[in-house]
Amino acid sequence: MSQIVSVRGVTKQVATGNASLVIVDDVSFEIEQGESVAVVGASGSGKTTLLGLLAGLDLPTSGIVRLAGQDLATLDEDGRAALRGATTGFVFQSFQLLPSLTALENVMLPLELAGARDPRGTSRALLERVGLAERVTHYPRQLSGGEQQRVAIARAFGGPPRVLFADEPTGNLDSTTGGEIADLMFELNRERGTTLVLVTHDERLAARCGRRLRLAGGKLVADERESLAAA
Q: How does the average pLDDT of the chain come out, rounded?
């Protein structure tokens, strides 16, 4: 396997009045292509901040983050955006669909921006794969939470991505719907050979990943590599 993410001595500090708050504290690890990794920890442990650093949505105060071999700090904002577009997909707790676009248009948009061939056909096929073949012309307000997350997953896999970043992807869903969404996400991840980096407070969801990175107070306190995956 090849390395897709490398984190070396990464710290993230933010100013709070006259002091500074350390959110991520001297964290180091590597992720190989094809791994499924859950980032777990209590609220405020730095999980979402770390995910943003891995994806180049933010830069560390110190340390090095490499995504697909590229040191993110050597790129400007446009360069990091271009790298994300070429290598990553995102699934968020709040779906992040554009309300004025149909399900099909939401999936098509990043493909069109990337200059993909046949974005409409690709998007229809993805929506069919996630079980929404009959809902392509519906707007987000006409879809349930689970259906909106299915659209978001279809959009995320449009690239197709080398790595999928997911931030609490089942957090706004009931347990049954959340389980269905998790099943779909892991199925697509296996089918397409992508890397999954999943932030979650749900230990059952984390246990489906082959590896858990456990944070406490911004520090990496455990790297649990034994596979408990029940997917």
A: 93
